[in-house]
Amino acid sequence: MSNLYLDGTKLHHHLESVQRWLKGELIAPLHVEVSPTGACNHRCTFCYADHNDHKLGTIKRDVLLQLMRDMGRMGVKSCLFAGDGEPLVHKHCTEAIRVGAESGVDMALNSNAVLLTEEKAREALPHLTWARFSVMAHEPGLYADIHRTKPEDFQRAIDNIATAARIKREQGLKVTIGIQQVLLPGNGHGVPSLARLARDIGCDYYVLKQFHHDEKNSGYAGDTAVNLMNRYRAEMEEAATLSTDTFTSIIRWHTFAENGERHYKHCLGLPFISQIAGNGKVYTCCPFFGDDRYELGDLNQDSYADIWSSEKAARVRKWVETEQDVSTCMPYCRHHQVNRMCWSLKNPPDHVNFI
User: Fold this and answer.
1) Pairing with 211, which of 90, 170, 171, 352 sits 20 to 30 Å away (CA)?
2) Stated pTM of the model
3) Is the CA virtual torsion 38, 40, 43, 46 positive or negative?
4) Ranges for the Radical SAM core domain (predicted)?
5) Domain 14-259+270-321, what architecture?
């Protein structure tokens, strides 16, 4: 039986940091998401970063490795390589994963897997807590249409993921390997087929999530999460039955049904999650990569620790927390579930002792 939890927040497992935050203390972020590069080998139709045209740049090797070491010294718990580009485009991605893990940070990778050679897999997998691979369709033609790439990239990605799963088994590694699909208007019919494929090639899990729509991007002509859920409910329910003793098929039902609605008035989760773009700049959150108003600092000029504790960072976080109209933000943003919990802690309901 899987112990994975992908449909909410695990913030309640870090109560010491939460208590310090409630007291107004500066805390190290629990989680940092890093975009090693803004460059990408695909141009997916649903990409939230299209408005930047993947031109924010690439973090220099020495800056990236120093960031990994700084996070370890600060007490950052986890780091995900993802962001506005394909992490494996960065020539030193796997080296940085190793350095991060050696510095005491739980490391993870989100990738389209096309560039995941066996050599890179062997370098990265022993140092990863998990690796999640984005595959948006169950067959080459539709895959190419959504990823806006060559049809042969589909089989290349699947073969590379299968190789990663084989290396995990052969070496007895603890890394969790999964395939993630975003539900879109044109791919729902293939959800069960892709879940079966993930199981057959040795993945630990398949997960279906909702689409993150950012108004700054004009290329998506889709539908709401709840409408798509209702349209493809039969396929989603079929996929949910495919779990075995060694494989879990996860449909994020709760998040779909929530439909991106926010019941909090302010963004309070910024102290817990940090996001860094391919230009080496630290921002409040990835939807605002490239927007100077949301920049906390520049790793090309200052250390991550100095940026995080700087007056500028405190000022920008406070501005977002008090002035940002969250109703205009991208639905299902990375801070959403954390914001829900933080809002409840800051604005408790009546009769809290009746648990």
Assistant:
1) 90
2) 0.94
3) negative
4) 24-245
5) Alpha-Beta Barrel (3.20)
